[in-house]
Please model this.
Amino acid sequence: MPKTTQPTDSRRRYATKQWRKGTVKLRRKKFEKELERLQVELVKLQEWVKDKGLKVVVIFEGRDGAGKGGVIKRITERVSSRVFRVVALSAPTEREKSQLYVQRYLQHLPAASEVVIFDRSWYNRALVERVMGFCTEEQALYFLGTCPGIEDAMVRSGIILVKYWFEVSQPEQTRRFMSRINDGRKIWKLSPMDLESHRRWYDYSRARDQMIAATDTKIAPWFVVPADNKRRARLNCIAHLLSMIPYHEIPRKGVRLPKRQKSRGYIEPKRQYKYVPAIY
Model:
């Protein structure tokens, strides 16, 4: 396992400054304006991916409640699901448990002209499975040792691989969990695993540190997103993702709306439609 290097004082000060900046509230109007601009760029990226036949994988990992789902939603809400595909696998079946560990993930890798977003990925073995005891320590360490080689093979096959870790502070994670508990619209987001992850904060911290130390490679580095401020985290992550994939706008012909055809005697039929009740 690669040795970790201690950050210098200047790097610590820079990280602290960036973290504090990320906690300053961003007004909704400014957020929505910037989000619209970035989503236009995502559409341009989409057309470039289709035109050049690119293969892109984006991995989202992080603490429970850190806001990964919100960022994924903002990335995908204005692009085509035929190009941007989200993979969020449930717990493995008995058959999948008997397979090579990464096998069920590899089948979801992109073909040409596709962007695959993993909402949690093969790194489950280094995090959830390891902390919760769903795999042995030997299996977790073996994964950490072999993962860089697998990702190296992906990149060398032509896949653009981008990995994000979303980090949230203890107080903010607690606040978000309490919000889920007290909001009937969010209660489905709170699983027994989430509750246990709240209790095992430091177990997850140790697992995260070892995971990043072992798999933060030159060919497939990790990028950490401070996520205490959801709006800033979303904008920062999307902007960074756009910077990681060189693209240009594909020229498009001007669009003219054609005139409607003539009715040629068509008359709306007289029948009673079953209308939705006008409650509002």
